[in-house]
Amino acid sequence: DTGAVAFLTKKQPKTFKVKVVTMDAEMEFSCEVKWKGKDLFDLVCRTVGLRETWFFGLRYTVKDTYAWLKQEKRVLDQEVPKDSPITFHFLAKFFPEKVEEELVQEITQHLFFLQVKKQILDEEIFCSPEASVLLASYAVQAKYGDYDPNFHKPGFLAQDELLPKRVLMQYQMTADMWEEKITAWYAEHRGIARDEAEMEYLKIAQDLEMYGVSYFAITQNKRDTDLLLGVDAQGLHIYNPNNKLNPNKSFPWSGIRNISYSEKEFTIKPLDKKKDVFKFYSSQLRVNKLILQLCIGNHDLFMRRRKVDSIEVQQMKAQAKEEKARKKMERQILAREKQMREEAERAKEEMERRLFQLQDEARLANEALLRSEETADLLAEKAQIAEEEAKLLAHKAAEAEQERQRLEVTAMKTKEEKRLMEQKMREAEQLAVKLVEQSERRLKEADHLKQDLTEAKDAERRAKQKLLEITKTTYPLIAAYSTPPAPPEAADFSYDSASSRLDFKDSDMKRLSMEIERERLEYMEKSKHLQDQLKELKSEIESLKLEEQQQQQASMYSLPAEARGYVPEPAYIPHSNVSVLTDLTLIIGIVEDWTVGVFRKVNEQNKLSNVFEMFLK
Q: 0.90 exceeded by the pTM?
């Protein structure tokens, strides 16, 4: 029998495997069979580096609820799962009233931060959209550090879960819009370290109504099931099932004298004996034990907070204070070094930029120098050209002065010639007037001559008639009567009288013809003389016109516009002379036409004199 027992003992395993899941890691341990819950819990705390162990516990799942591993009992003697390895979750079992005062270690803060963040994202803790965005910005600060727009490009939060689904569904906003809102807050947290960002997160989260509350379904009597019991660091609270935010009744730990339960009935006795005892019922014994554990643990911590810290806690706080001061100093040194490095980099960039700028300025200065040298050479050439042009202009100015003086002399000559031309024009006008008067007078004389010719023709006709009458009466008498001729004295008398009349008329006609011929010759000589004068005047006018045009061309084209130092005054420009010459030309044309008319009339008088001569013949 002893051998059989030894054989069985030898075959039984002495260890079992355990997997512990924290908020950011998974660990596996090989535990001895005889280990109690405290042995495993201490091993996990040592592995994690946690000293504030009173907040945490190892939780496992049993049936449709959960339970916390008891530290005073062996692990395998509890209702742990029979799986291998056995899975435990290392979680915060109790929550502090004021996280900033009670959480000492950085690892403790970090574990609480991860757990509370998960509860908010899983909607186990209700959080408003505004507070959710602010908490998300601190979570991003804790994960990514200071915001850098050059590094944190749009979309860098696409893989992070930062907001509860309820908040995302509540508003019609895209992921980019939510990221923009979170980034706006995140950019304001510059300079906050990771532990400080996590502490700020917890300080906001601890003010939420459902923070640190464990809810259990209860009934106030055996028939009703419409109440919830909430256990937290402040005390016990009674809620309606549809409202976990505002309790109907609360029992703070300072006002509770005793909590007891018998099977499924719980009794809360207030410290004030005048108040009624509150009783409620729970459906499961396992849940009742869990409620009692949480009540005892939260009450112990409540009383512990109001006592002087233990030596261990004081040492931890002192060490944590020194560690925070050291880290703060390191962060300040790091920030100063970072700032100095950034300043050095900025100074380097500024120096490089300045160097490039100076190089560009030097290059531009060299180019400007080359351009200035070229410009100097060009200006020297231009100065030389300008000097030559100045000499040329001076020479042209002298020529212009000479031309001006010549023009003045020419203008004076032109004035004199104009005066002479005007005088000749007046003489021509007077001569034309005289010719017109003489023409009128000759016309009158021609009319008188015509009248005299008519009278002479009438007298001739009468004389011939009378002569015919005399011959007709004389010759028939001589033939009929053969009388001797009449006395010669009477015949001679009559004949002589007729002959004398005829001679008188012939002498008058000859005299008149001679006068007409003489006047015609004089008139033709005067007309010829006038034509010669008009031709001479016309040739002088043409020569003056030509000379005026040459003077104008000489004054316009002899010098360039910029070189002309003198512009003749309008009095020197022979515009008025040209107009006078033009008027003279018109007058000469009129006189020539009149002269042609006069010659025509002279020809008519010649024809008339020829008629007289023919008549005389």
A: no
